[in-house]
Design goal:
Layout: H1 2-7, H2 9-23, H3 32-35, H4 38-49, H5 59-75, H6 78-104, H7 108-118, H8 120-153, H9 172-176, H10 203-235, H11 244-250, H12 259-287, H13 291-327, H14 335-342, H15 344-366, H16 371-399, H17 406-442, H18 447-452, H19 459-475, H20 483-505, H21 515-543, H22 561-568, H23 572-581, H24 587-643, E1 649-650, E2 659-660, H25 664-678
Antiparallel strand pairs: 1-2
Helix pairs in contact: 7-8, 7-12, 8-10, 8-19, 8-20, 8-21, 10-21, 13-15, 13-16, 15-16, 16-19, 16-21, 17-19, 17-20, 19-21, 24-25
Membrane topology: Multi-pass membrane protein
GO cellular component, one term: plasma membrane
Organism: Oncorhynchus mykiss
Length: 687
């Protein structure tokens, strides 16, 4: 056994590396266990605290581990034994709490069903929707604690009330944002200086603090989610190749007993195999392209990019004319016509955002990308369309906002965009998707049914709708503080609407795409929407003075004057500290601290990269050792079969005393077996 161990590829490689370092005059070794002997003890301690039932070993090894732990418990002291038991109990309690919290997550069973029937791509959309719901719930808590509750408690004008109805109010005010809604806490004009009017604790300061807290909290959460997703995608990037044999032979869970769960698990494996085969097929087709085919493909992609730019320019012109038409003064028109003119920019933006992404999807199909790249290209073009169209609309809106209490007017526009986005989703589901599904099922042989075909859940367009809706919420947050509450209710309704659409009206797609990179792109687009909202809100607050007829900032030259008044009322040391933190002198220490932190993270990244490469080498060596031992075992079995074959018997001179002759090749076989163990390059005798 010692000789075979010395002949293992890992032992030979370790000895070669050791000789190499010794020739260089160092005693460093490349083996992680020899270089870091403490790792073995740490791994052993971690295995000691791990529950026996979760150890990845057979039952006999688990029994041996249990006996070993009992022996260690008797050998160590009572205090050490008690500490180990408490550590194990705390870990098990933490695992049980995590499992219970995972079961308490809303819509877990629904997401499990959707993943089994439609793949991880469709599930990624619903996970993204649930994440936005959590984010808006958190924003509601911040807005409620900093703006709504202080306004309700310290309201100096108690006769105002939260909702005041007058004689000329109508149902259309709910859709337009006028009438009773304009006099409610939904919009900016409702809030004013109340009895809470201290120097560092007043309604304007709380209003500004709530808005900044919401934006900073959103930025932290979105950036964290994006970075974590990117790290996961980088780890499972091009260097990670899934093997078909692993999915076929090791992908099944033999603890499944429910037939429905078994069907879902089978669908998981089928969808992953579809995805793998689709990627392999595209890579093979891409490898067979010639230089002429590449040149033709790049010229075609250039023309299609030019077509995309032309379509985007036409959409922006259409939004401009719709905005100008809605702002024109018209008298004597009917009520429905006035409502249509009020909603003309949202209608045009919704129609443009509905039709052009479908055009982009067909354009990307001619560019001959992989399916995942096609989805990502459509996402990038569509999100640029949505954010740019919203930005153009805001620019034209700011350009013409010279009215009294212009903050309320801007809040109304954001409110109308949010409401009309939900109405478009509702009408598209119940007046287009369901009738189409009913017609295809009822008349499957008609030419119209064959032309429309079965419906698939288009992930890019639905994700873009969520990003657009959340961006509108961030942009209008300062002028319509109740938008996070409206967005929360809307997201809950959208989840159930989309759930019915997927499970009742859609069929699984024949081509799958990897959802890990697209999920990162979802959050990156959400980050772009947040950056656009911050830039829009900051430039608006800096450029325009607060309205002198409504709002909590009446009488202030800028919104940020309330912070200067608060700072001036503080003691001298506090004023000096705050002014230093907001001055240019603080920038240099901040940059130095960031450099130190980034350097430490970069050093840690390099160390982790070296450890990963070392572990990869260990896995390769382990595989080589297995192949070597299997080869040796096969050769040994062949020699034993030749050596211990039944020998012939020869009768002696006397009856009843047979003599057995030894096979002369047996000794040769044994000698060759020993020689092969000593020198694996030697050819065995008799083979």
């Amino acid at each position: 056994q010692t000789e075979i161990f010395n002949q293992l590829p890992s032992s030979l490689a370790r000895r070669r590396s050791l000789h190499h370092y010794q020739d260089r005059g160092t005693t460093e070794t490349s083996h992680p266990v020899e270089k870091y002997p403490g790792l073995v003890g740490e791994a052993r301690d971690k295995a000691t605290t791990q529950p026996i039932r979760s150890l990845p070993v057979c039952m006999q090894r688990k029994r041996e581990a249990r006996d070993l732990r009992h022996l260690q418990t008797r050998t160590v002291g009572r205090w050490e034994s008690w500490k180990r038991n408490q550590s194990i109990n705390r870990k098990r309690l933490g695992e049980q709490v995590d499992e219970a919290m995972a079961r308490l997550l809303p819509w877990s069973s629904t997401l499990h069903t959707i993943e089994g029937r439609f793949g991880v791509g469709v599930k990624a959309y619903f996970v993204f929707l649930r994440y936005l719901l959590y984010l808006n719930l958190l924003l509601c808590l911040v807005i409620g604690g900093t703006i709504l509750i202080p306004t309700a408690v310290y309201d100096s004008d108690g006769d105002r009330g939260l909702l005041r109805f007058e004689g000329n109010d109508s149902v259309l005010d709910f859709f337009v944002g006028s009438g009773f809604l304009e006099r409610s806490p939904v919009f900016y004009g409702f809030y004013a200086r109340s009895s809470l009017d201290l120097l560092c604790l007043n309604t304007p300061l709380l209003f500004l603090l709530g808005t900044l807290t919401v934006l900073i909290l959103s930025l932290v959460m979105v950036v964290r989610r994006t970075v974590v997703g990117y790290k996961h995608t980088w780890l499972l990037g091009n260097r990670y190749n899934i093997h078909m044999s692993y999915k076929v032979f090791c992908g099944w869970d033999f603890c499944i007993q429910d037939p429905e769960v078994a069907d879902l698990k089978l669908s998981f494996i089928r969808n992953e195999l579809k995805l793998y085969l689709e990627e392999e097929r595209f890579q093979q087709r891409e490898a067979r392209r010639t230089l002429g085919q590449w040149a033709h493909l790049y010229s075609l992609r250039g023309l299609l990019h030019l077509l995309v730019l032309v379509l985007l320019g036409g959409a922006f012109c259409l939004i401009y004319y719709a905005t100008m038409a809605s702002k024109a003064e018209r008298s004597g028109d009917y009520l429905i016509l006035r409502l249509l003119l009020h909603y003309l920019p949202p209608i045009v933006i919704t129609l443009v955002n509905f039709f052009l992404p479908h055009v982009f999807r067909h354009i990307s199909s001619f560019e001959d990308y992989s399916l995942t790249t096609q989805v990502n290209a459509t996402l990038v073009r569509s999100i640029f369309l949505k954010l740019a169209s919203l930005g153009m609309y805001l620019f034209f809106l700011f350009k013409n906002s010279q009215q009294e209490c212009w903050e309320n007017q801007f809040g109304k526009e954001m409110y109308k965009l949010s409401v009309f986005d939900f109405l478009a989703c509702f009408c598209n589901t119940f007046f287009i998707v369901y009738p189409r599904k009913w017609f295809v099922d009822r008349y499957p042989s008609s030419w119209l049914a064959r032309l429309s075909g079965k419906q698939h859940f288009l992930i890019p367009f639905n994700v873009l709708d969520l990003v657009y809706s959340q961006t509108v919420t961030w942009v209008g947050l300062f002028y319509c503080p109740m938008l996070p509450f409206i967005e929360t209710v809307k997201l809950m309704a959208v989840f159930y609407i989309k759930k019915l659409t997927v499970l009742q009206c859609c069929v699984p797609a024949q081509r799958m795409f990897r959802a890990s990179s697209s999920s990162v792109l979802f959050h990156f687009m959400l980050l772009l929407g947040l950056i656009m909202a911050v830039i829009t809100l900051g430039s608006n607050l800096h450029q325009f003075e607060p309205s002198s007829s409504c709002g909590p900032f009446v009488g202030s030259a800028t919104v940020f004057n309330v912070t200067a008044v608060c700072v001036d009322s503080l003691p001298g040391p506090a004023q000096s500290t705050l002014r230093y933190l907001s001055s240019e002198a603080f920038v240099l220490p901040l940059i130095l601290a960031q450099i130190v932190v980034l350097t430490s993270f970069e050093s840690r990244r390099r160390a982790n990269g070296k450890a990963i490469e070392r572990l990869k080498d260990m896995l390769v060596m382990s595989t080589s050792d297995k192949h070597f031992l299997l080869k040796q075992h096969t050769l040994s079995l062949r020699r034993q079969k030749k050596t211990f074959k039944a020998p012939p018997t020869v009768s002696g001179t006397r009856e009843g005393s047979p003599t057995t002759m030894k096979d002369p090749s047996a000794g040769i076989g044994e000698d060759s077996h020993i020689a092969q163990l000593k020198d694996p390059s030697a050819q065995p005798t008799g083979l």
